[in-house]
Amino acid sequence: MSLKKINTVLTVALVLFALWFGTEYILSPESMAPGFGLPDPPSGDGGGFLVVKGIRDVVLALVLGVLLVTGQRTALGWALLVASLAAYGDMATVLSHHGSVATALGVHGLTATAMVVVGLLLRRETRTAAAPAAPRPA
């Protein structure tokens, strides 16, 4: 299987994953709160912050999906690398607020690292595709 096909499958998986859990945070923030990893879920109107997280994740998935569908693979690689900072930020938030270390590393850290790996693979793919062919000796 070519690197381009592998990258496409991995990117589609990340996009669908972000769409799924982003939508869950929007539609049912109270059921998603424990899975974020913080020790105390927001109370009262604080659940609105989880909806904001869901909107962020859905928008990110849509941006990545548009870049993938339009063939903007270089931009897609860069977008994944930059967007991984949001997941690393979520991990840091959970850790700095005495949340679940397992969730911080196993959910947020793993997601962020997967985004970095796929972003770097896309960057490698586009650098390889853009490189001119070596001249053949006569």
Care to give the gist of this entry?
With 138 residues, the chain is mainly alpha-helical. Helix content is 79%, strand content 0%.
Write structural notes for this entry.
Helix 1 (3-27) crosses helix 2 (29-36) and helix 2 packs across helix 3. It contains five helices and no strands. It has helices spanning 3-27, 29-36, 48-69, 73-96, 101-130. The model has no long low-confidence stretch (mean pLDDT 91). The chain has 138 residues and is mostly helical. The protein is elongated and about 75 Å long. The longest helix is centred in the C-terminal third of the chain and has 30 residues, at 101-130.
Protein traits:
138 residues; mainly alpha; 5 helices; 79% helix; 0% strand
For the CA atoms, what is the radius of gyration? 18 Å
H/E element string?
HHHHH
Distance from first to last alpha carbon: 32 Å
Average pLDDT figure:
91
Approximate strand percentage = under 5%
User: Which structural class fits the helix and strand makeup?
Assistant: mainly alpha
Number of strands: 0
What spatial form do the alpha-carbon principal axes imply?
A: elongated
Largest sheet: none
Count of alpha/pi helices:
5
Helix content percent band: over 70%
Uncertain segments of ≥5 residues (pLDDT<50)?
Answer: none
Topology:
Blueprint: H1 3-27, H2 29-36, H3 48-69, H4 73-96, H5 101-130
Helix pairs in contact: 1-2, 1-3, 1-5, 2-3, 3-4, 4-5
